[in-house]
Amino acid sequence: MTDKPLSEIWVYLAASPLLWLTATLVCYLAAQRLHRLGGESPLLNPVAIAVTLLIGLLQVTGTRYQTYFDGAQFVHFLLGPATVALAIPLYRQRERLRTLALPILIALPTGVATAALSAVGLGVLCGADPVTLISLAPKSATAPVAMGISQKLGGLPSLTAVLVVSTGIVGAVLGPGLLRLLGCRDEAVKGFAMGLGAHGIGTARAFQLSPVMGAFAGLAMALSAFGTALMLPPLLRWIGLAG
Amino acid sequence: MLEALTLILICQFAGEVTVLVTGLPVPGPVLGMLLLLAWLWGRGGVSERVGGAADALLGNLSLLFVPAGVGVMVHWERVRDQWAAIATALVLGTLITLAVTALTMALVQRALAWRREGGHD
Question: What is the ipTM of this complex?
Answer without folding.
Answer: 0.86
